[in-house]
Amino acid sequence: MSVDQAATVTDDEGRAWPIREAGASALVLSEEDSECLRAVALGVAARHASRPSGLHLDDSDLMVDCKLRMLRDGPESLVQALTEFRYRSNPDGALLLRNLPIDDALPPTPEQGNFDGDWQRLKVASMTQLAVMNILGDVISYADEKAGRIIQDVVPVAGAEKRQENTGSCFLELHTEDGFHPQRPRFISLLALRPDHERVALTLASGIRRSLACLDGGTREVLARPIYRIRLSSSFVGDREDVYAGPVPVLTGSLSDPDLCVDFHAMTSDDPEGRRAIDSLRRAILTNLVGHVLAAGDLLIVDNDKAVHGRTGFTARYDGQDRWLRRSFAVPDLRRSTADRMPRSHVHRRIFTPGTDHAVHRRPMFSYE
Ligand SMILES: [Fe+2]
């Protein structure tokens, strides 16, 4: 896959798929609303200033404070848009927010995948993101990935250019986030601190609501069968490429408004009909791409049940000024996963233990090839 000047993605067979500009339907915060949100973020940060960075901001009191202050003092138009998206989503399954406040003086883009400095150096961006996510749901993370950080850094890492994960810089294939995980996130947020140097890295999304009309009834029926397996991401299992979750269906729930869980890089099926249906779905998804080069202060929210996401390729320079996004996840109900987390923690326990042949978890059943 590649991207050309006219904002199209070209697949391996040479066919170009156009990308609609997501900015056209973005919610752009006014200067007044942006300053209002900055004040909310700074207020929360000040009340939690003694919180050590080592806790990765994993604290229920902080989340309660974020939600309370956002509801009480945050920009009403933003709270309304987030609440509507939470209840109804939209045809693209993605909501782009622009002109969000971030910190004036940014540290260099971290080289090894994680920002390990004092969180207060990114207090505006961090609390802004948590304020937004706490309106959408309950913030979570995973111990397997980036040591359970509540806010994770998405940066290119030297040597990982070809990896199909957040550290890579080649075309990132469209996927459901952590589709293999029994408690996958409902909402993903990506807050940009820096774009790539050439400003060509388009963050992509595509919604099942738009794609469904491109699929015939037989294909939908096959996609609803539990005949698919998803390989666990390398960010969870390292170099192992033989750990799978499933079998699972791709489409679940309402026939007219289904939820989607798919990964065009890591999903397989032993059933030829299943593979044909995935190919049809991929064409439908590519027909309905939206994309945007995230600039500083842009925040993209993806409904992980209604849309897949990906990214076009870019060239990293590893000079401290590379593309830097910050990511966080939310679920509708934290208490559904109480057994999968330590008491009072928002971090899910490991589902995979390196060096063993067994995933340490009650669900799902993983298999090994
Ligand atoms: Fe992703």
Describe this protein's structure.
The chain has helices at 31-47, 60-73, 76-88, 123-136, 208-211, 217-223, 234-237, 272-287, and strands at 2-4, 8-10, 16-21, 27-28, 94-98, 138-142, 152-154, 172-175, 187-194, 202-207, 228-231, 243-248, 251-253, 258-260, 267-268, 289-293, 299-303, 307-311, 324-331, 347-348, 366-368. β2 and β3 form a beta hairpin. By secondary structure, it is α+β, with helices and mostly antiparallel strands. The chain has a single domain, classed as 4-Layer Sandwich (Double-stranded beta-helix), CATH 3.60.130. It is globular, with a radius of gyration of 20 Å. α1 (31-47) packs antiparallel against α2 (60-73). The protein starts with a strand and ends with a strand. The protein contains 8 helices and 21 strands. Strands 4, 5, 6, 7, 9, 17, 19 and 20 form an 8-stranded mixed β-sheet that branches. The longest helix is centred in the first third of the chain and has 17 residues, at 31-47. Residues 175, 177, 309 line the site of fe (ii) ion. Fe (ii) ion binds at residues 175, 177, 309.
